[in-house]
Amino acid sequence: MTARPVPEDLLTANGLRRAFVDFFVANGHHHEASGSLLPHDPTLLFTVAGMVPFKPYFVGEQPAPWPRAVTVQKCLRAGGKHNDLDEVGRTLRHLTFFEMMGNFSFGDYFKSEACAFAWEFVTDHLGLDPERLWVTVHVSDAEAEAIWRDEVGVPAERIQRLDEDNYWRMADTGPCGPCSEIFWDKGPDFGDDGGPAHGGDERFIEIWNLVFMQFEQQPGGERIPLPKPSIDTGMGLERIAAVLQGVHDNYDIDLFRALIAASEEVTGVAAKGPQAVSHKVIADHLRATSFLIADGVMPSNEGRGYVLRRIMRRAMRHAHMLGARDPVLCRLVPALVREMGRAYPELGRAEEMIAETLELEEQRFRRTLDRGLALLDEATEPLGEGGTLDGETAFKLYDTYGFPLDLTQDALRSRGLTVDVGGFDAAMERQRAEARKAWAGSGEAAVETVWFAVKDRVGATDFLGYETDEAEAIVTALVAGGKEVDRLETGMSGAVGLNQTPFYGESGGQVGDTGTISAPGVRFRVADTQKKADGVFVHLGTVEEGVLVPELAVDLAIDADRRTGIRANHSANHLVHAALRKELGTHVAQKGSLVAPDRLRFDFSHNKPISAEELSRIEEISNRMVLQNDRVTTRLMALEDAVEAGAMALFGEKYSDEVRVVSMGHEPGADGREKVYSMELCGGTHVGRTGEIGLVTVVSEGAVSAGVRRIEAFTADQARRHLAEQERRLREVAGVLKVSVSDVVERAAALADDKRRLERELADARRKLAMAGPADASGGDEVKEVGSVKFMGRTVDGIGGKDLKGLVDDAKKKLESGIVVIVGRSDDGKAGIVVGVTGDLTGRFNAVDLVRAGSEALGGKGGGGRPDLAQAGGPNAADAAQANAAVEAAVPEIVGDAASTTHGQPSDHDLHQQKQVRRCRWRQP
Q1: Up-side HSE of residue 387: CA atoms within 13 Å toward CB?
Q2: Quick check: 178 and 138 in contact, CB under 8 A?
Q3: Are 353 and 418 members of one domain?
Q4: DSSP assignment of 276-288, as one string?
Q5: Which residue among 162, 285, 393, 787 has its CA within the 20 to 30 Å range from the CA of 181?
Q6: Nearest in space to 908 (alpha carbons), one of 867, 859, 861
Q7: Who contacts 833 (Cβ-Cβ below 8 Å, separation ≥6)?
Q8: Which pLDDT value is given to residue 519?
Q9: Which residues lie below 8 Å from residue 207, measured CB to CB, with a gap of 6+?
Q10: Cα separation of 319 and 326, whole Å?
């Protein structure tokens, strides 16, 4: 077989992606869209390989819905052991975000077919020269070697055996098996010959890995053959695209060229020389950032959100190194959507949200970036080549200025410096212990093993609560203290399992039902209902009368009035969700909720506070749907059909193949025809008609965390009571103000204006009173000569920090040349201190240094400000005189230091120039 030219449509990443899927679909594979970057796996922060979404099928937790599948899976490696972040931009191949093309067999075909498919695709469809392809197999896998040689036709001299590099295992126990890899030979310009086993790493690059999952690893080390061996393969799209496009750097493929060109345009800096690294980092991190946000992650200081923030800020620092001083990453999002939006529609849907999040985060970080770099300059001045920055300073950069550790390491690398990582970790641990709990991971909460045993014995609980509030049932299990028991007596608390129940188990934000379980002479008060072990409804409560035993026939009754409130709030939650998306944009996605009998709470993705006008419209839209009194419909649908019909799925929620779809309300569509207003996948309980909600009243809105807002609302009678209470208070206020209700706002505004005016007048009076006595500073006895410099010190009572600054500014003007210190004592025993230095003296004296001396005398620490004006404070107002004296005593010391540096020592100008040179180095790649 001879090589042929690569087809034109495969010379783009988009064309390659389509060709891979089309090939395997034509060979009987189901095309499954990429899963989320957030896996349903508590051991992983992110999806790191193409097989991750299929792990439940490989380990036998769930049956595979198809015998064979093909995917192009988005992946991210930027946290934990799968962390490529530090290498991105500096090597030819490392990426944080990448696409893994793979074909999978779940007990269908095995080695022969997998090898044949792979070889046919790379040679016949991609047109790669077979004479430049090498194959490796595991040392123990003679079967695979024979297949490649005898069935596929690969020459024996280009098949090599490797050891551990060619064996795959999911964990210490579980599915495992040998691998076989296909390598591409880049040619003699890139290293020695000898194939992948003996040649140069840069010459032979792996393009496809085929995992033959045929054994189960036992705890003792024994490997037992699996009854249905499976296939898991992976081929990195970016890497094979580089081969097809004849380039040796992943960042030179068409997809990255477009992003780097956009980066060059917005920064005005060409991607040449050392600047090329920064452009590569920006292009890679833009992809990682955008796809994470599209999948629902928001920047924060914990878990996945912290990894996202690290990636964003690393890209922002590189933009800063290219000279960008305004947000630029947000301006690159349209270029990314153009390149990848067709393959990943979620990217286009979230485009506005991605751009807004990037812009806000960049604005936040830029406020501290320069100050953080200045601290880095100062801390590393005494360090020589190969020196180590202490962990406390690195932690301060993280804690105060938002520098993730790897960003600090990145900035130090160009200077040949390192960080004391152990010291950083110790400082971080101290803060965690004092301030917050560490992130606990992303898996589901643990459930008591006892309920798994119950489910194995009696099966899942049948839920009857959609149709009825009352039912009869049989007790299937009693649990107390985490163990099954044979009876619960009067006064005992425990949990009851039933074969069927109308009690809703807490899930999807809806609280669990309460009520009673009863039989003749027996009464159990249900205080809560929860779901355990994937389908067992657990009724928690206390025996009020009699003895409860297994197999007892019981009557069940939920608290119907409570359920009525829950129904109204759950349906209102759907209406509010739809109204938020309609008013704020389709980037709004549910981040959490609470549906209780007395209120609803809805957390959602949005980057800024909602205005009063927006809240009013959200309320108005929701109530318009309530007044329609439209029938709330529920139906069971196939998951794919429901999503295709427009049903909103809760991000991160696991759904079965058949889902319950709840629809309510109607409105005109874009084509003029009526369409459903709200349609969501939901297992909760709802009203029969929207009119039963009665009324939706929003009572609060605020931030939960970065990029996540929370809205709370009342419905039905609770809303009516809330509005009645608001009306009562309004009338009360009107009575106090002696105006009609309609004039309350105008009268309150006038009073507020009067209050502000009086406060200003009072502040002016206090300042004049405080400076009374020797009002003319230049002639008063408070002004003295200290080391040939005029010095004025004064203590005042009842003056706040803002007014202290004004007093100091006034005194500086009167002095014309000199130093002013004023200590203000407050009624709570604390004191503030402000030091001012006139402009002609700031070359010799720094107000920050002086104010720190005074602060120490007051029992305080530190202080801050500018060379001409600085402020501090302390808890000991009684030591105000000592604070004045401490500042005065510091003046001759500084005068002496200044004099000593004028003879044979660097001048202020020289030192300033040296610092500027050092600071410039941080801003070079």
Answers
A1: 11
A2: yes
A3: no
A4: HHHHHHHHHHHHH
A5: 285
A6: 867
A7: 804, 821, 822, 823, 824, 851, 854, 855, 858, 863, 871, 872, 873, 874, 883, 887
A8: 96
A9: 122, 182, 183, 184, 235, 236, 239, 240, 243
A10: 9
Count of helices and strands (H, E) across the chain:
25, 35
Of 486, 478, 604, the residue nearest 541 (C-alpha): 478
Tens of pLDDT, residue by residue over 397-452, are: 887 777 777 778 877 876 788 888 888 888 878 775 654 332 222 223 334 678 98
Judgement on whether residues 244 and 271 belong to the same structural domain of the protein? no
Residue 760's φ and ψ, nearest 5 degrees, are -65, -45
Q: Which of 519, 534, 558 is the last residue of a domain?
A: 558
- Copy the structure tokens of residue 686: 């709802």
Residue 434 has a pLDDT of 58
- Dump pLDDT digits (tens) for 104-121: 999 999 999 999 999 999
On whether the CB atoms of residues 108 and 58 are closer than 8 A, the answer is no
- State the pLDDT at residue 209: 96
| Domain assignment of residue 743, yes or no | no
Provide DSSP, 489-523.
Answer: -TT-EEEEEESEESPPPBBTTBPPP-EEEEETTEE
CATH code (residue 209) = 3.30.930.10
Give yes or no: residues 227 and 340 share one domain: no
Read off the pLDDT of residues 155-189 as tens digits, 9 standing for 90 and up.
Answer: 999 999 998 888 988 667 778 899 999 999 999 98
Give the Cα separation of 357 and 608 in Å (integer). 10
853: domain range?
A: 778-900
CB 671 within 8 A of CB 614: no
Question: Would you state the structure tokens that stand for residue 270, as one six-digit string?
Answer: 């060409």
Distance CA 244, CA 253 (A): 9
Which strand ranges, in their side-by-side order, compose the sheet holding 864-866?
A: 783-786, 789-797, 819-825, 831-837, 869-874, 864-866
Residues above pLDDT 70, as percent of the chain: 89
Residues 619 and 684 in one domain: yes
Tally of domains in the chain = 6
Read off the CATH number of the domain in which 689 is found: 3.30.980.10
Cα–Cα distance for residue pair 37/631, rounded to 1 Å: 37
Distance CA 35, CA 48 (A): 11
pLDDT tens digit sequence for 652-682: 566 777 889 999 999 988 777 889 999 999 9
Q: Is residue 720 part of a domain?
A: yes
- The 10 Å Cβ neighbour count of residue 742 is 8
Length of the chain in residues, anyone? 925
Together in a domain, 145 and 203: yes
Residue 414 pLDDT: 67
Question: 344 and 214: one domain?
Answer: no
Question: In this structure, is residue 300 part of a structural domain?
Answer: yes
79 and 216 in a single domain? The answer is: yes
Are 487 and 601 members of one domain? no
Predicted TM-score (pTM) of the model is 0.57
**Pick from 820, 813, 817, 810: which is nearest to 871 by CA?**
820
pLDDT at 522 over 70: yes
